[in-house]
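Workshop exercise sheet. Pairs work together: one partner reads the sequence aloud, the other fills in the structure field after running the prediction. Swap roles for the next sheet.
Pair: D.N. / O.F.
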Amino acid sequence: MLLLIKLAVVFIVSFILSIQDLKDRRISWWIIVLGDLIFICLQLFDYGLLNGKLEASFWLFPVQSFCMFLFYLLVRIISGNKLGSGDVLFGTFIGLCVKWNLLYLTLVITVICADIYFFLIWKLKKINLQTIKIPFIPFMSAGLISVYLLDFFVERF
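Structure field:
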């Protein structure tokens, strides 16, 4: 049951932020903070808070969340602020949701989705990719949801 609630939170937060990013190129930071807090609470229950003893592996999630924040912040700095601050904050949510051994897969799927989209608009619309602003959270959401579903089905079956 807890796994389904986590899956619903991932879908809802990802969907809302993707729509906001596509529509306005801005997101509500409080949705990310709320999603982070809800997911931390769910992880606490999942990792033994109800038993009175919290598993040590729980602490990987806040650490990897911070690492994802630093990773996307570094990408933002290196790219000259082409990655938005909302994308950096969404990285914290990804770090809380995905197990550490699947984070790389989330990044790979995100980049593949973005690359396919960039290639298609470059070939079909003949747009200069240096000047266009494209929301990145939908690609991050696609990576997150794909990996989360993969982990969900592998764990269940």
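Discussion prompt: The two ends are 15 Å apart (CA to CA). What would you look at next?
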